[in-house]
Amino acid sequence: MNDEMNDKLLIREMVEQWAVWRDAGDWQRFATLWHPEGVMMATWFQGPFADFIRVTQEGWTKGVSILHFLGGSAIEVAGDRAIAQTKMTISQRGDVEGAGGPVPCDVVCTGRFYDFVVRHEGRWKLLHRQPIYEKDRIDPIDPGARLTLDSALLATMPEGYRHLAYIQTRIGYKVKMDMPMLKGPEVEELYRRGARWLAGGALER
Fold first, then answer.
1. Are 127 and 118 in contact (CB under 8 A)?
2. Residue 22 belongs to some domain of the structure
3. Rounded CA gap, 38 and 116, in Å?
4. Taking the mean position of all CA atoms in its chain, how far away is CA 142?
5. What total of structural domains would you count in the chain?
6. How far is CA 201 from CA 77, 79, 81, 111, 204, in A?
7. What percent of the chain has pLDDT over 70?
8. CATH number at residue 167
9. What is the mean pLDDT of residues 164-192?
10. Residues 6+ away with beta carbon under 8 Å from 120
11. How many C-beta atoms lie closer than 10 Å to residue 127's C-beta?
12. What does each C-alpha distance from 154 to 96, 157, 161, 162 come to in angstroms?
């Protein structure tokens, strides 16, 4: 196995560990995956990984349920830097408006993790994670329940993560409304940022 293929396998392992350890609440091992300057970007949080761990733990105590499932990866390696794109789904459970009161629902959002990865102290570490949100849907846990969503509010949400943003707003999070989606200027600029960084440029936050 050549060095580049081995690096890609190690990066993929890191991406998989991220999903498993984060969703399991294994925070000690989860923290080892991050570069000391690592930053997490999400709809509901943007900032240093240590703060991401803290606010995620706080959400857990309030009953917030967000899980991840991974698909295939495409990884480009350039020396001690790499860009990894991994297909994923984000699944969040929460209550929304229904005909007879609050209705427990699952929102599933499909997209990609777009990761800036660096070799640090002999291991591949996550320096910056920017998800790309492609499409989502909302389904009541009880298929017979009837939802009465605020259509005016829903229409203001970004198309790629409309229902995810809606349910997160409803439970009190301030949602970032200009995240990269399948198409548009935000995702095109993300690709350009990634290419510049992979070529040796500074990381543009």
1. yes
2. yes
3. 9
4. 27
5. 1
6. 14, 13, 11, 26, 9
7. 100
8. 3.10.450.50
9. 96
10. 35, 36
11. 21
12. 12, 5, 10, 7
116 occurs within a structural domain: yes
CA distance 193 to 170: 32
Q: Are 168 and 118 contacting, i.e. CB atoms less than 8 angstroms apart?
A: no
Q: How many residues does the chain have?
A: 205
Q: What is the 3-state secondary structure (H, E, C) of the chain?
A: CCHHHHHHHHHHHHHHHHHHHHHHCCHHHHHCCEEEEEEEECCCCEEEHHHHHHHHHHHHHCCCEEEEEEEEEEEEEECCEEEEEEEEEEEEEEEECECCCCEEEEEEEEEEEEEEEEEECCEEEEEEEEEEEEEEEEEECCCCCCECCCHHHHHCCCHHHHHHHHHHHHCCCCCCCCCCECCCHHHHHHHHHHHHHHCCCCCCC
pLDDT digits (tens, 9 = 90+) for 112-161: 999 999 999 999 999 999 999 999 999 999 999 999 999 999 999 999 99
Number of C-beta neighbours around residue 82 at 10 A: 22
**Is 101 among the domain residues?**
yes
∠ CA 197-204-44, rounded to 5°: 120
Pairing of strands 34-41, 46-48: antiparallel
pLDDT score, position 2: 83
The pLDDT of residue 1 is 66
Q: Would 59 be classed as within a structural domain?
A: yes
Q: Which residue segment(s) compose the domain that 9 sits in? A: 3-188
